[in-house]
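PROTEIN FOLDING TASK:
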Amino acid sequence: MKDFTSTILVNLLQRVVGEVDPDLVSGQQRSDPFAGGIASAEFKRGLVDKVMAKHGPGLLLSVGQYLHLAEETPVATVFRQSADPQVLATKWLRLERYHHASHRTRIEPLEMEGWACHRYSLGSEPILGENCLIAGLLVGLVEMIGVEDCRLQIGESDFAAANLRDAVLLPQESLVQFRVLWSQPRGRQISAEATELAHPDADLARRLAELLGSDVGRSWRIDDAATLLAMSRRSLQRHLADNGRSFSTTLRQARMREATELLTRTAAPLSEIGYCCGYADQSHFQRDFHRVTNITPKRFREMSGAKATGANRVALGRQNWR
């Protein structure tokens, strides 16, 4: 199977390199994250090799500090909506699977605040430059959701996020294993109290819909929702059933609302929309959308007449980012 990577990742890397060393990407056609969701991993590896050869690992490790350059993309908004680092990690792993990446990351929570990360491959081994890029991105994403004192631990060395550009690795370092560490998160936390405050008289179905809609890109499970709504799984199921509803139906409705919004108001590619709506793969998104609307997402976009321009899609992304 051909190896792919996220167009957003390639576009971000090109933009960062373009700011630091324009000659290195001179003449390259910039990957457009709104033209397609996946790009050739071979192209990404070629650019990574060029950066490593000229700038060493520091520039790749610091790419996560430039995430503001990708703020117009719906995927960036999905990551930023993560309530905590564990939710963020789940989204990252789903993104790797969604785009059938051959090089992936195993993320395990530590007893202290942090992750133990291990890079592995379904084919050829990941190269040092790619591992530097992913490690730096994970640090930047954790910072983005409001976590303080974020740092990267490589072997016995700790690098603060702001100092990654100057990081120097030992000659034998492959960065197959690393740790992302932080202090207590200060990011947004979703809670039952928050939904009740917004609508003190709202029924349970409304509160559940608001909860799911607050981060539709999350891989929601009924147990997660029940915990945040301060009730047991069985109680939530019973309350929904008494009103002729189910968790799966409520989740599908939230996903469909987000999908139709992205299809009509942005130029995001279909593959990114499926990911942003919480689906495990593109075929699942296509089936679900057709089941609900009786047409494909592509046909829905054509019928809606949505032709988001570069200007309004960026404006929308920045509005969502705030």
Summary: The first strand starts at residue 4 and ends at 6.
